[in-house]
C-alpha cells in the first residue's frame, strides 16, 4: 500500500475513534429553565395559513450554588465570569451545539424546530415559522424548551413550558397584541428586566422598549421593531444586534464562517437530524459529513495526481474549514495531524541508512 493511502487510512481511523468516544464533556449539564412561552400568528405574512412566531423567556444560570459547573463555565470567552456576581462580557460566546432552544408538538414527541440559544443568563429566544408550517394553532400539547446539546454532557438538561397562544388572528390584531402594554412584548420585557435585577426603565420606559431592551428582542427575532413599531421607543431602530462571538484567536475567515454558521441555525438543524435519525449529537453528525467529504476529496486528489501531497491536501481542506465551525472540533484535527506527523517521522527514520 502506498504511503498516502496508509496515512489516509490512519487519519480516518483516528477521527472515527474519537467520534466513537464522542465530544462529551466529563460533567453533567448545568440546570436551565424556561420562564414563559408565547405564540403569535400572522405577524408578517398571513398567506397559506399564516406565519407563526414563538417567543421564549429563559435562564441559563451564570452561577449555581453547590455545583462545580454553571453556564458561564461553558463560554468560549469567560471574561467577567469570575466577577461577583458573574457578569460575562461575551454572554453569546457559547460554543455551537452546547445549548439550544426547541419547539415540540405531540407532548415532546415531535421536534418542529431547534435553534442555537442566543446567550447564557436571562434572555429571550425566538423561533419563526413561515406560512405552510403545518402546526395546529392552539395545540395544548405544544411546548417551548431550552436544553443542553445532545451528546455534549454526561447528563442532559431540559426545561419546557406550555405555549400561551395569544389572541390576535389577523395581522392587524396580532400586531396590536404584540404592541399592547398588557398582552405583548412589554410585559415579557418587564419580566426580563425584573429577573435580571435591573433598575426600572433599563429595558422598558413609558411602556416602550428602549435600546438596551431591543438587544434582547433582536436576539429573539431581528426586525421585531419593524413588525410592532409602537412597542419600541423612538430611536430603537438604530441599535445593533449583539452578534455571536467567535472563539478567541480565530482568523478573520474563521470568525466569518463561525458567525454565518451560528446565524444560519446550522447547529440546531444538525442536532435535530442527528437526534431524530441516528441518536447522535449535532457535532457528531456534522463531523461524519465533513469526514465523508474529506475522504472523497482525498480520493479524487490521489486518483488525479497519484501524489501524496494532493491526497493530504484534499483530505485536510474540508477538515480545517469544518473545524472553524466545530465540525469536527479543532482538537480532533490537531490530534490526528500530530499522530500522522509522528507516524510519518517514524517511517522516514526507518528509511534512513543505519
Q: How does this structure look, described?
A:
The protein is an alpha+beta fold and 354 residues long. The chain folds into 2 domains: 122 residues, no CATH class; 206 residues, no CATH class. Helices cover 40% and strands 16% of the residues. It has 10 helices and 10 strands. Strands 5-2-1-8 form a 4-stranded mixed sheet. The radius of gyration is 23 Å and the shape is elongated.
Tell me the count of domains. 2
Q: What value does the average pLDDT take?
A: 81
Shape: elongated
Number of helices: 10
Helix content: 25-40%
What distance separates the N and C termini? 24 Å
Given as residue ranges, the uncertain stretches (5+ residues, pLDDT < 50) are 16-25, 237-251
Element string (H = helix, E = strand): HEEEEEEEEHHEEHHHHHHH
Query: How do the strands line up in the largest sheet?
Result: 5-2-1-8
CA-atom Rg in angstroms: 23 Å
Give a quick set of tags describing it:
4-stranded antiparallel sheet, 2 domains, 354 residues, alpha+beta, single chain, elongated, 4-stranded mixed sheet
Brief rundown of the structure:
This protein has 354 residues and is α+β, with helices and mostly antiparallel strands. 40% of the residues lie in helices and 16% in strands.
